[in-house]
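We now fix the convention by which a protein and its fold are recorded. The integers have meaning only within a learned vocabulary of local backbone shapes. The record below shows the convention in full.
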Amino acid sequence: MLRIYNHFISRTVILLISAEIFVLIFMVYVAASIRFFDYLDPLPFTFLSLLPEAVTFTFVMILSMSAMGLYQVDSRLNIKDTLFRLMPSMMLGFGITTLIFYLLPDLYLGRGILGLVMLLALSGILLTRAAFLKWSRLGILESQAIVLGIGGKAKEFVEQAKKDPSHRGFKIIGFVPLPDEELHVPAYAILPKVDSLMSLVNRYGAREIIVAIQERRGGCFPIQDLLECKLNGIKVTDSAAFFEREQGQIRVNSLYPSWLVFGGGFDQSLLRSGIKRVFDLAASGVLLAVTLPVMLVTGLCIFFEDGAPVFYRQERVGKGGKTFMVLKFRSMRSDAEKSGKPQWAAADDPRVTRVGRIIRKLRIDELPQIFNVLNGDMSFVGPRPERPYFVNQLCMEVPYYNVRHSIKPGITGWAQVRYRYGASVDDAIEKLQYDLYYVKNHSLFLDVIILIDTVEVVVLGKGGR
């Protein structure tokens, strides 16, 4: 993993993007050469003259593929899933590229060349992905690690493997037990006893040791063995730091108050706040201009189906625990909570109207929150704001839940693009772990990544209820 502005990016993803940038640029020149191939006349372009068009096309295509989730871990697992996401990416990229070339006549590829480029690019990307899939199956790109501990913390690695058995890029070789530690991992996964950790590392070719021990005080903690490994170039990582790096989340049950106090991140500087506010205003202004016709049509559809009111105001908890009224399109019946008690939204919730079902799936019901952002109650990107009733409940049941209120809530967020719709305490814990990652590592770079990933959530209707 490489850390860019506090956010971890897989080396495999960086290598894949680099390879596909080369393929896309190369295909522009191949298409132009085929289109203008003539045995008598030289080609009517040079490398430099066609470079602006090639770079523009490549930038748009990489952005379109990113928006369809083609650089997320789960999209690199099989060709079928790749093709499912690549086709809309190509159509989106073709439309945007055509518009750019129309608006900027100096940048122009003829329709014949552009059509040929799209066909060649599709073939080139599929071949590149097939090669990466082959390398992934062979384990060439895998990093191997040994987990120190067999207790409750070590069990998280077993559970993670069950949730994501096809995960590529990292392999846990096995677990090393410590004295008086209760067994929580399968016995077959325990590595044989040797003289030292360094001997075990050399035997299995591990590159990293992950410390997953609940209690580190006393004489059983092998500090000298870990120091020897560290001095020999082996990475030694805490389990909390591992999940932050590999899963983009901060595990609640691995946290200590001292880790939050002395750890890096949690940037609340005046400069960061100023940059984020400018970004909020710019992004909200653009989104409002683009979606205003959609919002007008949505309002009319809600009114004709279920009458007034079109909008729905609801109390939510914002930065510092202060409450504000969030604005949304009404997607449920007017008497959705006639009992007076707040309820979690459920799958196929009978309270949702026909129009509401569509706008919730496409997240159109969230668009009026643009005005909350412009008003300063919310940010464009951040943890989703929750109702006071549920916040009070979750603060009692979930450790560190209030940490997410140290920054402004957002229309979209890291938890929204990485996890399904939350409708229970267990879901709230999972989403909190992603929210904690964002609170700790938020930056303009991560905000842009979340916005790009949000396109996939909206287009594919992921997580909506």
About this structure: The first helix runs from residue 11 to 35. The first strand starts at residue 2 and ends at 4. Residues 2-138 form one domain.
